[in-house]
Amino acid sequence: MRTPAIFRRARSSRSTRRAQSATVDATGDQTIRQTTLPLSNLQRDLLARCATTPLLDSFTRLLDLCARYLGPEDLDLIRAAYVLGYEAHNGAFRKSGEPFIEHPIAVAAILAGLAVDAQGIAAALLHDTAEDTDISLETLSATFGETISEIVDGVTKFGAVEAPKQGDARAPGASSPSLSVQERKARANAETVHKLFLTMMRDPRVVLLKLADRLHNMRTLGAMSDRQREVKSREALEIYAPLAGRIGLYGVKGEMEDLAFSYLYPAEFARVSRMLRDEEAKRAKWAQRMCDRMRRELAASGVPAAVNWRLKRPYRAWVEAREVGTDVLMLNDLIAFRVLVTTIPDCYQALGYIHRLWLPYERIRDYIANAKANGYRSLHTAVFALDGRLAQVHIRTHQMHRAALHGVATVWLERAALGAHDPTGQAPRIREEQPLWVQQLASWEHDLKLSALDFVDAIRDEMFEAQVFVFTPHGEARELPAGATALDLAYQIHTNIGDHAIGARIQTTSPGGALLGREVPIDYVLQTGDVVEVLIDPKVYPQPDWRELAVTRYAREKIARALRLRAREELGGSTPRKEEPEDTLIGATHESAHTSPLTHPDGEQAITRLASCCFPCPGDEILGLAERGAVVSIHRACCLRLRAILARRRERGEPWAEPLRVTWDRIEPGPYRLRLAIWGQDHPGLMYEVSSSVAALGLSVIHAVATANQDRYKAAISLTLEMPLDVRRDTVLRKLRAVPGVTHVERDTRKGCD
Question: pTM of the full predicted structure?
Answer without folding.
Answer: 0.60
